[in-house]
Design brief:
The protein is about 85% helix and about 0% strand. The chain contains ten helices and no strands. It comes from Escherichia coli.
Length: about 220
């Protein structure tokens, strides 16, 4: 029995590793998290460029880390389930919006903008990312991954998806140390925009893959 259980587990993991849909879901999570890592640097950005008062630093941190999480989760879930009826499509659209927002953030004249406008821009972008985090594993259910593969799929998705935590913070910090001032932050925003764009490309592929997968399942049932 133990040998049979071990063989079935190995077969399950092998089939997961061969499943392109699961890899696309994993890299979807990867690109969301790579952009999310950049949110940490919004506070030093506002302090150094906008000269954010100390009294507002704590308030901004609470809103950015806690309030947006509480609000972003339900909003992301509601839009993906009730309006778009597809988490993968929601991630695709929000990646496109994130890319455009980051390009805009690079182009804005931050040195001459009021601090409250800077706070609003960064918090608005952060809200989008938190809605993505709420649903980035949902495509596993949308893709109708078999129950005996769900655990392995989640394991692979988590391993790849959370990988940016190992290097993104160091990468962004290194760039800011190497390029003091607004230039460093613009480079970081540019890298985040590249991650978001790659996420949009992967999401488009995932949407097509899930659609194809559903058609194949319907054909098999017919």
């Amino acid at each position: 029995m133990k040998k049979e259980d071990g063989a079935s587990k190995n077969t399950s993991m092998t089939s997961v590793l061969k499943d392109k849909t699961i890899w696309l879901i994993a890299f979807n999570v990867f690109f969301v998290y790579a952009v999310y890592c950049g949110l940490t640097f919004f506070i030093p950005f506002l302090k150094n460029i906008y000269l954010l008062p100390v009294a507002l630093v704590g308030a901004y941190g609470i809103i950015n880390q806690y309030c947006l999480k509480m609000i972003g989760g339900p909003i992301g879930g509601m839009i993906s389930d009730k309006i778009l009826k597809s988490p993968s499509k929601y991630l695709c659209y929000t990646f496109i919006i994130s890319t455009a927002a980051l390009v805009l953030l690079i182009m804005l004249p931050h040195e001459s903008m009021p601090v409250y406008l800077g706070m609003a821009c960064t918090l608005g972008f952060g809200a989008i990312v938190f809605t993505q985090r709420a649903v980035f594993f949902a495509p596993i259910g949308e893709a109708k991954i078999a129950e005996n593969k769900t655990g392995a799929a989640m394991a692979l998705g988590s391993f790849i998806g959370y990988a940016p935590a190992m290097f993104c913070f160091s990468l962004y910090g290194y760039i800011l140390d190497l390029n003091p001032g607004i230039i460093g932050y613009k480079i970081v925003f540019g890298i985040m925009a590249c991650f978001a764009f790659c996420g949009a490309v992967v999401s488009v592929m995932l949407v097509k893959r899930i659609s194809q997968r559903k058609k194949e399942m319907l054909a098999a049932e017919a």
